[in-house]
Amino acid sequence: MSEICKWLHEQLEQLSLVKFPFKVEQLPENGIYFFYEDREIWGHGGHKPRIVRIGTHKGEGNFRSRIKEHFLLDESKMNFDATKPAPHDRSIFRTNIGRVLLNKAKDDYLNIWEIDFTSRNKRDEYGHRRDIQKEKMIELEITRILRERFSFRFIIMTDVQMKEMVTKRLESFLIGTVAHCKMCRPSSNWLGSHSPKKRIKESGLWLVQHLKSNEINESDKGNTLNAITRTKEWIVNGR
């Protein structure tokens, strides 16, 4: 399992790291992303960055909007109030970082943070308990952390693959590959170690789903290599 994890990290090195600031128009419409975090090193020798999150998106053509939600590229989303969801309600990645900040501070507001306010019923029922100014301060800190500490690579998935759900299957097995690796472990100062989510703390990944999935097989490796080649060609040809 560790050798497959090493193989995946090394193959992805063919692709450039994307760091903030970046133009979302230069990202694909469909794909899988691989996040890296400053000072988080893989366990296969040397000081290469380790993958800390793998993800994709729901629906065709929504890769860009998913990345925009994580990095809060549409800052008008900060103009929320008790009748509207906050940015983290549309990004589980942001939710998990917020959980860490609140849990580390032993802040009881974590109970409110856990409520999904994209639901009208939840807004009607619990909206009066929200501290909007506090949420905005947390959201600002999450944005700072993501923009300063995280970078990512991506592989393009074709429209046909998205329709056939190949992407979701491959995503889960890619997650399983890094989750099962016994050598890629979080640093002693990893931010995620303060997560109230046991799966995040134990896996060293900003994920709670697909951690027990199988690792990629030979067919998946071929699909991954094809996607990497297709992505390199797409970049060279000016997207």
Q: Can you describe what's shown?
A:
- With about 240 residues, the protein is α+β, with helices and mostly antiparallel strands.
- It folds into two domains: about 1-55 and about 155-235, no CATH class; about 75-145, no CATH class.
- It has helices at about 1-10, 65-70, 90-105, 110-115, 120-125, 130-150, 160-165, 165-180, 200-205, 220-235; strands at about 20, 30-40, 50-55, 150-155.
- The protein has a four-stranded antiparallel sheet.
- Strand 2 (about 30-40) and strand 3 form a beta hairpin.
- The longest helix has 19 residues, at about 220-235.
- The two termini are about 35 Å apart.
- The mean pLDDT is about 95.
Provide tags for this entry.
2 domains; alpha+beta; 239 residues; 4-stranded antiparallel β-sheet; globular
Quick summary:
The chain is of the alpha+beta class and 239 residues long. The chain is built from ten helices and four strands, in the order αβββαααααβαααα.
How large a portion of the residues is in β-strands, by DSSP E? Answer: 5-15%
From the helix content, strand content and strand pairing, which structural class follows?
A: alpha+beta
- Compute the gyration radius: what is it? 18 Å
Number of strands: 4
The biggest beta sheet, please?
A: 4 strands, antiparallel
Side by side, the strands of the main sheet go: 1-4-2-3
Number of helices: 10
Mean pLDDT level: 94
Which percent range fits the helix content?
40-55%
- How far is it from the N-terminal to the C-terminal residue, by CA? 34 Å
Uncertain spans? none
As for the number of domains, it is 2
Task: Please write the string of helix (H) and strand (E) elements.
Answer: HEEEHHHHHEHHHH
Shape: globular
